[in-house]
């Protein structure tokens, strides 16, 4: 199995050898496509929630799951001290080629002894948590990366709309015992596939409850047009 599907596609585009997009297969029985050029979009081409998040950034910034580095590049051009973090070797190489000055190839949980004013997780970056039960571990680690007064900015989606609605306005959810936003994915690029991996979509109310239980304040900053939202988390210092 090819591990760095995402990074290979990003690096191909950066090197001018782009010929096809990334295919995704999920436990929601949906086949979809990630257009690789979209990962290189400019600020003007970004969704309003992403634009809002970038405008809220302050101080030193860690762009978690930076991918092709479009958010980092925009912030760097605005004069911010930004570090692009990704565990994909191909993505990291592309970020360097695009001129991003600080790029780190690492898993989030392996990053230690550094603190930032803003942690940025866009394009449902919170998905890396995988499952709801992992949120405590995630929040515990995030606390070690935040400077006093720092913030975590993230966007996600409530995917309840993808399930069948009943006559009473409720939804038919699979009786698996798992949270409905826990999805598994496989990616394919140039006939190579990744192993199956977990990915989390979290509705705002669930995020807020989990954040508060870990002593974070959670603010709904903005809502998108299709069940998506932008949230800001800060540590409750009381």
Q: How would you describe this structure to a colleague?
A:
The chain has 238 residues and is of the alpha/beta class. Helices cover 24% and strands 30% of the residues. The strands form 2 sheets. Strands 5-4-3-6-7-12-11 form a 7-stranded mixed β-sheet, sandwiched between helices. Strands 1, 2, 8, 9 and 10 form a 5-stranded antiparallel β-sheet that branches. The model has no long low-confidence stretch (mean pLDDT 92).
Short description:
With 238 residues, the chain is α/β, with parallel strands linked by helices. The chain contains six helices and twelve strands. Helices cover 24% and strands 30% of the residues.
CATH superfamily: Vaccinia Virus protein VP39
User: Could you give the distance between the termini?
Assistant: 48 Å
Count helical runs: 6
Helical content (DSSP H or I, runs of 4+):
10-25%
- CATH-level-2 architecture: 3-Layer(aba) Sandwich
Bulk shape: globular
Q: How many strand units?
A: 12
Structural class: alpha/beta
C-alpha Rg (nearest Å)? 18 Å
Estimate what percentage of residues fall within beta strands: 25-35%
Q: Work out the count of structural domains.
A: 1
Reading off the top of the CATH hierarchy, the class is best stated as Alpha Beta
Uncertain segments: none
Tell me the CATH topology.
Rossmann fold
Task: Average the pLDDT over all residues and give the rounded result.
Answer: 92
GO molecular function, one term: methyltransferase activity
GO biological process, one term: methylation
Keywords: Methyltransferase, Transferase
Protein name: Class I SAM-dependent methyltransferase
């Amino acid at each position: 199995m090819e591990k760095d599907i995402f990074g290979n596609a990003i690096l191909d585009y950066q090197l001018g050898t782009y010929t096809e997009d990334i295919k995704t297969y999920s436990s929601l029985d949906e086949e979809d496509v990630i257009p690789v050029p979209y990962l290189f979009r400019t600020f003007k081409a970004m969704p309003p929630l992403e634009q809002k998040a970038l405008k809220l950034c302050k101080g030193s910034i860690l762009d978690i799951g930076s991918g092709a580095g479009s958010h980092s590049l925009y912030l760097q051009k605005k004069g911010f001290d930004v570090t692009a973090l990704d565990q994909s070797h191909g993505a990291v190489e592309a970020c360097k080629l695009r001129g991003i000055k600080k790029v780190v190839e690492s898993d989030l949980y392996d990053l230690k002894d550094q603190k930032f004013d803003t942690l940025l997780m866009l394009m449902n970056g919170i998905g890396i948590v995988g499952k709801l039960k992992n949120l405590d571990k995630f929040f515990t680690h995030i606390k070690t990366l935040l400077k006093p007064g720092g913030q975590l900015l993230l966007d996600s989606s409530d995917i309840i709309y993808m399930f069948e609605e009943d006559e009473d306005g409720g939804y038919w959810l699979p009786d698996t015992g798992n949270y409905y936003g826990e999805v598994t994915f496989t990616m394919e690029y140039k006939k190579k596939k990744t192993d199956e991996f977990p990915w989390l979509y979290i509705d705002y109310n669930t995020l807020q409850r989990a954040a508060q239980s870990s002593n974070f304040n959670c603010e709904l900053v903005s809502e998108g047009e299709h069940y998506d939202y932008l949230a800001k988390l800060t540590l409750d210092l009381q």
